[in-house]
Amino acid sequence: MIESVNSTSVLNRDRPVKLLVLGGGYSGRRLAALAARAGIAGVISHRDPSAAAAPPPGWHKVGFDSGSGLRPDPTALTDITHVVSTIAPDREGHDPVLSQMGDLLQTLRPQWLGYLSTTGVYGDSGGAWVDEHSPCQPRAGRSANRLTCEQAWLATDLPVQIFRLPGIYGPGRSPFATLRSGSSRLLHRPGHVFCRIHVDDIGGALLHCLALPDQRRQPLVNISDDVPCPASEVLGYAAHLLNCKLPPLQRYEAAAAELSPMARSFWSESRRVRNDLLTRQLGYRLRYPTYREGLRAALAEEDGTAVLPETHRGAEGSGSVT
Ligand SMILES: NC(=O)c1ccc[n+]([C@@H]2O[C@H](COP(=O)([O-])OP(=O)(O)OC[C@H]3O[C@@H](n4cnc5c(N)ncnc54)[C@H](OP(=O)(O)O)[C@@H]3O)[C@@H](O)[C@H]2O)c1
User: Fold this and answer.
1) Looking at residue 316, what is its pLDDT?
2) Within a 10 A sphere around the Cβ of 29, how many other Cβ atoms?
3) pLDDT of amino acid 15
4) pLDDT means over runs of 10, the chain (322 residues)
5) Residue nearest to atom 33 of ligand 1 (CA)
6) Domain extent at residue 233
7) In the structure, which protein residues have their CB atom closer than 6 angstroms to any atom of ligand 1?
8) Of all atoms in ligand 1, which is nearest to the CA of residue 169?
9) Which of 41, 124, 195, 216 is in Cβ range 3.0-4.6 Å of 269 for a Cys bridge?
10) Is residue 322 part of a domain?
């Protein structure tokens, strides 16, 4: 049974959980909000904390910017027990946290450290399924850098767990705005699928894994939903929810030259990412197993009609935070 994660229960240890989220961007902020609703206090970093939105209740902002050398004041981090880094490799391919805060993390001696990576490290599988044991064959430079950063994290003596993510979506990162403005593109490439994950399943899975006993922690975990599928299918469902017309269908090959290099690099790889380790072995129950529930919830939140997601019980028993 998984121990509960809250401000008074301490995972069989003698300190309440206090989370440090490095990188208060999209996933970092949603994770902090989810943790706050579960009663977990924490600290969240921004490159410019004075410009960042207010943190959730029980949370504080600190400054961290590897570019300018801004580091958090260590006194703000003294009681940190768990850490999540959401920060991508820098332009040179180095991990900003390891290069600028590695010594500070060693001093903190966290009980667990989650690192957000990407399923891009698997490379192109031609649409075949990949899991955590699949070979990594990153194609693009940034995925190769990511794999190097994963390895650098795993080479530390910190209790690191790597989480590999596909495309992240959720409120504010959904197809609805471009559909409404008429600027979305309906692209199709036969046989090509993408994987995705709702941002609150990243937070939910992290809080779930954070609460697992040490012996159940796996070094690599995919966080992906149950349904890899073509981008056109997702856009079609989003248009259905909005009751609006889809743009004309274009074959990917015909449109590729007009896409950004980043978009073309996404379309150059296709894989189906297995989540069995997370959902079956580790017992995390996805809030949004497919894009359908995820898009409905995102639209409700964007339109201000959503009920905030509550912490719910995991598949393994009472009291877990998922
Ligand atoms: N977006 C996707 O679909 C996707 C897919 C797979 C994996 N990932 C990876 O998953 C992680 C989380 O993604 P996300 O979309 O939530 O990221 P995001 O919104 O871009 O947030 C990244 C955070 O990192 C901070 N940051 C960036 N460079 C920094 C530096 N040099 N020093 C200090 N802080 C720095 C940013 O600071 P500021 O708040 O000051 O901007 C921001 O808070 C990232 O590593 C991303 O590459 C993303």
Assistant:
1) 29
2) 22
3) 78
4) 37 77 98 98 98 97 97 96 98 97 96 98 98 93 96 97 98 97 96 98 98 94 98 97 96 96 94 98 98 98 74 30 24
5) 65
6) 18-302
7) 23-28, 46-48, 64-67, 86-88, 90, 96, 116, 118, 165, 167-168
8) 3
9) 124
10) no
Strands (E), 185-297: 186-188, 196-198, 220-222, 249-251, 272-273
For residue 86, the tally of other CB atoms under 10 A from its CB is 24
Q: How far is the CA of 116 from the centre of ligand 1 (A)?
A: 9
Q: How far is the CA of 134 from the centre of ligand 1 (A)?
A: 25
Listed in order, strand segments (DSSP E) in the chain are 18-22, 41-46, 59-63, 82-85, 112-118, 129-130, 160-165, 167-169, 186-188, 196-198, 220-222, 249-251, 272-273
Whether 2 is in a domain gets the answer no
The alpha carbon of 317 and the centre of ligand 1 are apart by a number of angstroms equal to 32
Give the position, in ligand 1's atom list, of the atom nearest the Cα of 28: 16
The Cα-based distances of 197 to 73, 107, 166 in angstroms read 33, 33, 6
pTM above 0.90, yes or no: yes
Domain count, the chain: 1
Atom of ligand 1 nearest to the CA of 67: 31
Angle, CA 155 vertex, CA 149 and CA 160 arms, to 5°? 80
| Residue 13, in any domain of the structure | no
For residues 19 and 38, give the distance between their C-alpha atoms in angstroms, rounded to a whole number. Answer: 12
Ligand 1 atom 45, closest CA: 88
Angle between helix 291-302 and helix 231-242 axes, rounded to 10 deg: 40
Alpha-carbon 41 to chain mean position: 19
Going from the Cα of 308 to the center of ligand 1, the distance in angstroms, rounded, reads: 23
CA of 78 to the centre of ligand 1 (A): 24
- Between the CA of 86 and the centroid of ligand 1 the distance, in Å, is 5
Structure tokens at 194: 């993408």
